[in-house]
Amino acid sequence: MMLDEYLARIRAHRNNILRYRRLLKTRLSDLECQYIERRLSEEQAAVEALTAEGFPVALTGPKGAAALPNVEVRQ
User: Fold this and answer.
1) Potential cystine with 33: which of 1, 28, 43, 56 (Cβ 3.0-4.6 Å)?
2) Domain ranges of the chain
3) What is the reported pTM?
4) Please, what sign has the CA dihedral across residues 28, 31, 35, 38?
């Protein structure tokens, strides 16, 4: 997945979560409230799943080389 697509998906889920939280602060029937809470839970799970996959860009050096050079620490 490309970085732009990844960030767009995270942003869309975040916006949905914010919208559902705002809706829960309004007057809703029990049925509406249950539906919104279920959707909120699904959106939060989707964000967790995306972030659990890790950031889609890895910082690596040339093939066979370490990403960062070895550095000695003097005391």
Assistant:
1) 28
2) 1-75
3) 0.68
4) positive
